[in-house]
Amino acid sequence: MSLKANDRADAVAMLGLFPSTRTGRIIKTMEQKVQKPQNMAGSLTQNYNGPPITRPIALVGLMGCGKSMVGRNLAAMFQIPFADSDTAIERAAGVTVADIFDLAGENKFREMEYREIEILLGGTPAVIATGGGAFCQPDTASLLRDKALVVWLKAKPETLLSRIGNVDSRPLLHNKHSQKQGNETPIEILTRLNEVRTPFYEQAHLHVNTDGLSKRQAASKVMNAIADKLAIINTSTISSTSKGA
Ligand SMILES: Nc1ncnc2c1ncn2[C@@H]1O[C@H](COP(=O)(O)OP(=O)(O)O)[C@@H](O)[C@H]1O
Ligand SMILES: O=C(O)C1=C[C@@H](OP(=O)(O)O)[C@@H](O)[C@H](O)C1
Ligand SMILES: [Mg+2]
Q: Where does Mg(2+) bind (predicted)?
């Protein structure tokens, strides 16, 4: 969505006032029906036969690592709802993520992100695709680690950029929001974010490298890694492990 001047002024005024009916919001935000996997040719290669999913699965990692796309397919494999925190924020605010960055700034976006993730974590266990910066905010990270199984989808900056293609929907890949003086190209921004954010992403319970994998292979690899992890959790406590990281 792109807003005209008057609409933008209204949107700015509304950004602090989003509705608080918790149940209604969860229903609106989650895809209640189990979806057919999207953007994958043919049917899935694998059905999930692992331990039951009794806690939310949260996907974290840099823009373009596949949180939204792999997340939707994982939810279909697990037969549980899917939710995307960016979509939840956009529904609550009535404007796009890019517009929120433009109109209200990143700090406001992070507040909204925390609130929406908190709501999603309180609903039916779902696969939750977070935005790439969510797990780098200490409060949001501790909420996620506490309530969800957190999975880091790893990939090199070059891989990420080739997947993202058009950077319009990712405000942090534009210089005006890149938090650095001077002109950086999208690959330079992604490389810098990768360095700064890796220590945060390393706090995820599970690390899965998706470099060189197709969408289908990535979804299967993540599904198997989660099954293994849940089997271990059933006999011990959650700690970080890597899968091809
Ligand atoms: N393993 C993959 N192989 C090829 N393309 C991928 C893969 N994972 C995601 N993509 C594509 O990359 C783009 C960004 O993926 P997306 O799920 O939106 O990333 P994120 O939510 O982490 O920013 C989408 O067009 C998606 O179809
Ligand atoms: O990396 C980030 O800080 C962001 C990533 C975006 O989500 P994706 O990771 O799904 O692109 C979105 O939340 C916003 O543009 C900020
Ligand atoms: Mg996404």
A: 68
pLDDT of 30 reads 65
What was the ipTM of the complex prediction?
0.98
Q: Is there a domain that residue 70 lies in?
A: yes
Taking Cα atoms as reference points, which of 54, 63, 73, 48 lies closest to residue 225? 48
- Specify the ligand 2 atom closest to the Cα of 170: 15
In a domain, 53, yes or no: no
Q: Is residue 124 part of a domain?
A: yes
Q: Cβ contacts of residue 212 below 8 Å, gap of 6+?
A: 159
Pocket lining: 164 vs ligand 1, CB cutoff 6 Å: yes
Provide the domain count of the chain: 1
The amino acid at residue 73 is N
* Residue 111 in this model has a pLDDT that exceeds 80: yes
Question: Is 29 a member of any domain?
Answer: no
Ligand 1 atom, smallest distance to 170 CA: 23
**Which residues constitute the domain of residue 133?**
60-243
